[in-house]
Structure formats: C-alpha cells, structure tokens
Amino acid sequence: MEQSKVFDDETGKAVLSSERTSSGAFLARGSDEIVTNIEKRIADFTFIPVEHGEDLQVLHYEVGQKYVPHHDFFTDKLNINIAMGGQRIATMLMYLSDVEEGGETVFPVSKENFSSVPWWNELSACGKQGLSIKPKMGDALLFWSLNPDATYDLSSLHGSCPVIKVVMETTLKDDVGEETVKTTSLGAAHQLLGQQGCSGDDENEAHSTQG
C-alpha cells in the first residue's frame, strides 16, 4: 500500500497532502472473482453499470490517521472530461473492520438531526460534528455527490475522523494450537461511481479521494 493522495483543484493531478493520511491500494475492475462479485452487487444496488465505476480502492487507517472533510465530485476541468471517466455521481463505502473509538464517516454540513442517532454516545468528538456513521465490519454506506439535476450536492461533504482506538481480538485455531491476534487499524474499501468510470494507474491516481 502507498500513502493515499488527493486531487489538486487547479491541475486535477494527484498529490500527497497532510489532509489525508491513510494508505491504500487499487484493485482493478474485474481483477478476480471476488472483486467482480462486489462490483456486481454495487451495480445492482445503485442501478449504475459496473463500467461506470472506478477501480475499487482498499484503505488502511492506523490510529491517528484521518481524511479531512471534502467532496468527491470534481471541480477541475481535467477530471470532468469524459475521457477521464467524467464527473463522479456517487460513492459506495464498505467497512472491513470494527472500530472501538473514532474512525467515523462524518457529514459535517448535514441538516439532519444527527444527535438523534442511536449510537450518538459512542461517537468521538469529531464524530459529533455532524451526521456520522460508526464503522462496523460488513456494513456499507452509499451517498450521492450530485443532485438529480446534476448540480453539486454540497451536503455530501464528508470526512474520515481520526482513528482513536481499535482493538479486536480474534482467536485463530489450527493443528498446532491457538493464537490470539489483535487488530489495531481500520480497514475500508470504496468505489466511486461516475458518468463513465475509468481504470488504469494514471487515471485512478487522479481519481482518488475517500469518504
């Protein structure tokens, strides 16, 4: 895995930034049966064809790592070009591990009554700054970046809160005996869905943001 990048609003190029401190790797579209099945389920759920999705990105957050609030839609001329995949429409985020504290996906400008969620008391200070989803292994989150009329949905502003505490103990059994493994990081995968979608390292570097 490599440090995750963000796109520059002026140039549209992928750059390193202190605003995003996770690491990640891309899984090419249809690269194996598991990826293909995941992509098909996303397409079935969103009604957006598989071909319109960017490559899946697997993300790894150590304690303290985060991604400050941002939008997934593009504002630069380079990335909205249909040859690059076009404008992003939606994001599907899938949680690969549980988090004891922190690591929420937060929507800070949501107009919902976010303090009424049943997990409010379990949220970190960052998570209480907006409508937040607490990571739970196996859960998935879909949100839209554009309104039905193709204008920007500004309420889609979202971020990944710093991971504070992740301690999951798993007991593995084999012929030799038992071993207890502790997981101390947050894992997530996401697919960004657009007008056309793209694949390939250069295009995906430019099309790499996380929710």
TrEMBL record:
Named cofactor requirement(s): L-ascorbate
Domain of life: Eukaryota
Gene Ontology terms: cellular component: endoplasmic reticulum membrane
Keyword Transferase: no
Keywords (A to Z) from UniProt: Dioxygenase, Iron, Metal-binding, Oxidoreductase, Signal-anchor, Transmembrane
Main localization of the protein described in the UniProt heading: endoplasmic reticulum
Cross-referenced SMART domains: P4Hc
Residues of the Fe2OG dioxygenase domain: 52-188
Substrates-to-products reaction catalysed: L-prolyl-[collagen] + 2-oxoglutarate + O2 = trans-4-hydroxy-L-prolyl-[collagen] + succinate + CO2
Entry membrane topology: Single-pass type II membrane protein
InterPro entries the record matches: Oxoglu/Fe-dep_dioxygenase_dom, P4HA-like, Pro_4_hyd_alph, Pro_4_hyd_alph_FE2OG_OXY
UniProt GO MF annotations: metal ion binding; procollagen-proline 4-dioxygenase activity
Localization, UniProt: Endoplasmic reticulum membrane
Pfam families for the chain: 2OG-FeII_Oxy_3
Designated name of the protein: Fe2OG dioxygenase domain-containing protein
